[in-house]
Structure formats: structure tokens, C-alpha cells
Write a structure and sequence with these properties.
42% helix; binds NADP nicotinamide-adenine-dinucleotide phosphate; seven-stranded parallel beta sheet; alpha/beta; three-stranded mixed beta sheet; single chain; NADP; 14 helices
């Protein structure tokens, strides 16, 4: 019988990728979830993917989740830490804001009789750093959601994908050099040769989730990383120039320039312990996944982006 998948975050990067890949398999009925099913993003999904259903769900509203998960076999779940809905709560001292959303999602899925859930989690930086970096809330919250879901194994099967460092981050961290008003600068605090497991989130996530669903026994309760492999932090910058012909440079900014303690600790943790705590086994598994992982060069080719617009133009 065709299984029905509900996708949290279907209008976003990770969930959008999952929707795209699972739709392409032709094996699933799909319910794309959004807080705003009448919004433009939802309308676009309905046009792009004929036959899918779009429904309302808010991770802060358990009743909406229960309705959204009715008659669903599988849930893909992602929690977006970096948004006002969470930040406002964090600012008032509610450091569990992301965890609570994840717990709502797990509880509602169990109540609705969902059998399998793939959750986009991350390592605990606190554990990986032996307590040195304990304030990376968007790692800790996800890891606690993972623990909670795993603890419910008698009621729901939990699978965990961990996203690599988004290639898309390079677009967000780019600026035109104030010195020559021409060179594209990519500014991060990491040493330029820091090894990062990179992911083209929009393309790679869905392929890995499809693999997880096709290999439940292999993947149950384990971590499945989403990344084509390790690259130096500066490789995306070299690839940018190679593809666009535009001058670009990697700029190593001081940690102090980062806007929050959260991000400072995250980048310190990435520098010292790595995003995947040094794990490399996923690279061999990638060979079994029916997907060509995006390289930095291909990312820029596919994107067709030639840098931010200069503020002086
Ligand atoms: N940047 C990186 O390198 C990196 C690496 C690993 C992990 N991550 C993690 O990735 C996560 C973000 O994932 P993304 O990139 O896919 O985010 P995104 O593109 O911003 O999309 C967020 C999605 O979540 C949905 N959403 C947000 N709040 C919701 C709520 N309360 N209830 C229901 N749906 C909600 C949104 O749907 P609607 O707006 O339509 O409701 C949207 O589809 C972050 O938590 C981050 O920590 C990032």
C-alpha cells in the first residue's frame, strides 16, 4: 500500500528538498505542512507538485499537529531555530523553545498513530567538546529532541539525519569588499583550511531521506549525515571564482564580530571539534545512495548567482 508522508518545513530548504525527492520517487502520497497553507509558498508547491496535499501545522500548536498527522505513516520533521517565534522565547529565558516544538511533534505523531519519523537533528556540541561549548542551543535542542524521539521506540521508529554545513551559508555570509567595491568577500571566523562537511541542502537532503526510508533496518536509530564530503572552508570561495570569473576572497573575521554567544560558540566548536565530530563513515555510505552529491563548483553553476549587489551601485 502507498505510504503517506507528512513533511514539516515543506516550504523551506530541508523539507522542500525532501518533498522534491520523495515526489520524484512516485512511491509516496505527500502532505506538505506549513503554518500558512493559503500563502504564496504553499500555492507554488501545489503548482510544482500536482497531486500533493497542503495542510496547516504549527509546531507550537499541538492540536494542529494532531490533525496534520491524521492517517500519516511517516513524518519528516525539521525545527527552525533561527526565527522570531523561537528567538523571542529564548530572549525571555525559555531555552527549551526548540526542544518543546520537537517534543510537540513527537507526541502528536504518536497520538495520531504515525509509525516512522525522520528528524533533522545535530550532535550535542556540549558532549563533543566535553562541556567546553555548552551554549549552542540550536545543537542542544535538536539533540534532546532526538533523545526524546529515540526514547519512544516502543511507539514510533525514529531516524536521524544530520545536515552538513550548508553551502547556502556562503550566499548569506557574502558581501562586496568595502575596499575595492568589487571583490566578493565570504566572511567566516574559521581558519580558511578548516575541514567542513558541506551540503547542498536543497538538493542533498531529500536524496538521503529517501535512502533512509528505503533502508529502515540499516538506518533505524543511527545518525545519517547529509554531506557529499569534507572540503576546506575556503574551497567554496575558490569555486565561486572558477565558475563566475569574479574576484573573491575568504575573509577570516574575529569571533567577536559574530552577533551572538550562540554563534561564537558554534564556530569555535566547529573549528576545534568539527560539525560531525570527525566522523567520515558517511562518505562510504554515500556511494550506496542513488544521488550525485553537489560539489562546490556544481553548487555555484546550478545557482547562477554572481555575488551580492554592491551597496554603491
Ligand atoms: N545553516 C546550516 O549550515 C545548518 C546546518 C545544519 C542544520 N541547520 C539547521 O537547519 C534548520 C533550518 O532548516 P531549513 O534550512 O530547512 O529552514 P528554512 O529554509 O528556514 O525553512 C523552515 C521551515 O520550517 C517551517 N516552520 C518554521 N517554524 C514552524 C512552525 N512553528 N511550525 C511549522 N513549521 C514551521 C517553515 O514553514 P512555514 O513558514 O511555511 O510555516 C519552513 O518551511 C535550523 O534549525 C538550523 O539549525 C542549519
Amino acid at each position: 500500500m502507498t505510504k503517506t508522508v507528512a513533511i514539516i518545513g515543506a516550504t523551506g530548504l530541508q523539507g522542500g528538498s525532501v518533498l522534491n525527492s520523495l515526489y520524484d520517487t512516485g512511491k509516496y502520497k505527500i502532505r506538505a505542512l506549513t503554518r500558512n497553507p493559503k500563502g504564496e509558498s504553499a500555492k507554488l508547491l501545489l503548482m510544482k507538485y500536482p497531486g500533493i496535499e497542503v495542510a496547516a501545522a504549527d509546531l507550537d500548536d499541538t492540536e494542529s499537529l494532531r490533525k496534520a498527522f491524521k492517517d500519516i505513516d511517516i513524518v519528516f520533521g525539521v525545527t527552525q531555530f533561527f526565527q522570531k517565534q523561537i528567538m523571542d522565547k529564548i530572549e525571555t529565558g525559555n531555552v527549551d523553545a526548540e526542544y518543546n516544538q520537537g517534543k510537540n511533534m513527537v507526541d502528536a505523531a504518536i497520538a495520531a498513530g504515525v509509525k516512522d519519523m525522520v528528524y533533522s537533528s545535530l550532535d550535542s556540541m556540549k558532549q563533543n567538546s566535553n562541556g567546553k561549548y555548552s551554549k549552542v542551543l540550536h545543537f542542544e535542542g535538536k539533540n534532546r529532541i532526538q533523545e526524546y524521539l529515540a526514547s519512544k521506540i516502543d511507539q514510533i521508529r525514529g531516524y536521524f539525519v544530520y545536515l552538513g554545513f550548508y553551502m547556502e551559508n556562503y550566499v548569506d555570509f557574502a558581501r562586496i569588499s568595502p575596499e575595492d567595491n568589487k571583490t566578493v568577500e565570504f566572511a567566516f571566523p574559521l581558519d580558511p583550511d578548516t575541514k567542513l562537511p558541506l551540503a547542498d541542502t536543497a538538493k542533498d537532503t531529500g536524496a538521503v531521506v529517501a535512502y533512509v526510508l528505503d533502508h529502515p533496518e540499516e538506518c533505524l536509530g543511527t545518525v545519517v549525515e547529509v554531506s557529499g564530503g569534507y572540503y576546506e572552508a575556503q574551497d567554496m570561495v575558490k569555486a565561486f571564482t572558477e565558475v563566475t570569473g569574479k574576484p573573491a576572497r575568504y575573509v577570516q573575521i574575529p569571533y567577536e564580530y559574530l552577533p551572538s554567544e550562540e554563534l561564537k560558540e558554534m564556530f569555535h566548536g566547529l573549528q576545534e571539534f568539527g560539525l560531525f565530530n570527525g566522523r567520515t563513515e558517511f562518505i562510504a555510505r554515500n556511494g550506496k545512495i542513488n544521488h550525485t552529491f553537489t560539489t562546490p563548483t556544481e553548487f555555484w553553476k546550478n545557482r547562477g548567482w554572481t555575488g551580492p549587489v554592491s551597496s554603491k551601485q
